[in-house]
Amino acid sequence: MESRVAIRTEKLNFIYNKGQDNEFQALVNVDLEIRREEFVIIFGPSGCGKSTLLHVIAGLEKPNRGKVIINDKDLLKLDKNEFANFHRRQIGIIYQAYNLIHTLTVLNNVALPQIFLSVDRGEREKKSLELLSRFAIEKHARNLPTELSGGQQQRIGIARAIINDPDIILADEPVGNLDSATAKNVLDILKDLNKKEKKTVILVTHNPENLSYGDRVIYMKDGMITKETAKHYKITVTKEKGAQEAPMTQLEQVMQAYQGLKSEQINILIMPFKATAFAHHFLSKRNLDETKIFEDNMQRRLMKQMDSEDFFKILNRPFQQGGVGLDKRTAEKIVSRINKIIILAYFLAKKYRQRKDSDGKHIKITEEEKAKKLMSYLLYICQEKELALPERKEKERLEVAVLDRLANQITKSELFKQLDLPYKEGGAGLHAKTARAITEEMELMLITLYGIKP
């Protein structure tokens, strides 16, 4: 019976320049198991060993120690001819730099792997044209690769990788040189290959924006697998009350992957997530281009590269002139809310006040002070949205639940349950709309807090 495991590594170790002054161990006892038809992402900062691991799995590098088992075959026990035949039929590789032969036409680049399988010219050209048509580049079949855009060249690379119908697709930073729109197109192609054609896909990336495509994420650091997560980061709407878990969960995964970095470095890495969360929170019924403008400038606002006045101008400016196209009142309201969130987030992140006591020491900010500020803001939001305000006894339970969420002792869905649960049953007894508004506001506050230096 065929194993459900497509790839397995055992105690993989790989050392560059072994025995030399610049010796470097890129992989340290890596154990990995990937099931058939999985879309797995290997994720981590530059130099963590993720590309080396992919190259060892592909057979492009030989480990110093360990095993690589692919489709029940031990790669290290295959002779040269067995390995070449196995590799051509079972594995397709996509590179960041495309690795196309610039002196061959697009058609011949795609057909190249078929030549090594001795497929006759007519059949291989027919299959190549079918793939080029599928990826909307058939009209460029007789062009040279250098005459095409980066996105088109990467699609050629994908077509070449799958022309022999391999079971496994290995993609090494395939969208690293592409703009966001083209990158999405390439990632969608890989997703289709996984979902529709049941290919096992392994994608190496350092970009946290790509994590949502995976069924599973393998986190690497210093040549070791530090963590694995499955499906928590996929952007889905939960059944309960339509609440979204994804933005916060994605951030948690990224933060843990980069926990060795300084808070300032982490803050920069997760800035795209923060901007997307703000766009999701404040924008509705805006097209993708307008949302992109908002997100780009929201990043600048969060990084203190833009003041609130200039941010307002961008929001209020017509789309045709490079703005988001919001009316003046809406733009003012959003800017005011965002200013309050940023100010409060920095206050919550602080440990001490600027001023000093009589002994010359900075005065510590108490948890009670933070709770009071946070509660004041949340009640202000409820009032602004004309929602039912909690009574005194309800406020006490609201504060407890909110502080538990702030300390990450409960999840987003658990916070909502506590706020929505009737008072007699131990909850805060808030109106459902009020509970939902406070829950969403808390998530945005937590996202803003991530990576801020105390």
From TrEMBL:
Organism: Candidatus Falkowbacteria bacterium CG11_big_fil_rev_8_21_14_0_20_39_10
Domain ABC transporter as annotated: residue spans: 7-247
Molecular-function annotations in GO: ATP binding; ATP hydrolysis activity; transmembrane transporter activity
Protein name listed in UniProt: ABC transporter domain-containing protein
GO annotations of cellular component type: membrane protein complex; plasma membrane
PANTHER family listed in its UniProt record: ABC TRANSPORTER ABCH.1, IMPORT ATP-BINDING PROTEIN
InterPro entries to which the protein is assigned, alphabetical: AAA+_ATPase (IPR003593), ABC_transporter-like_ATP-bd (IPR003439), ABC_transporter-like_CS (IPR017871), ABC_transpr_LolD-like (IPR015854), MacB-like_ATP-bd (IPR017911), P-loop_NTPase (IPR027417)
PROSITE patterns per record: ABC_TRANSPORTER_1, ABC_TRANSPORTER_2
Keywords: ATP-binding, Nucleotide-binding, Transport
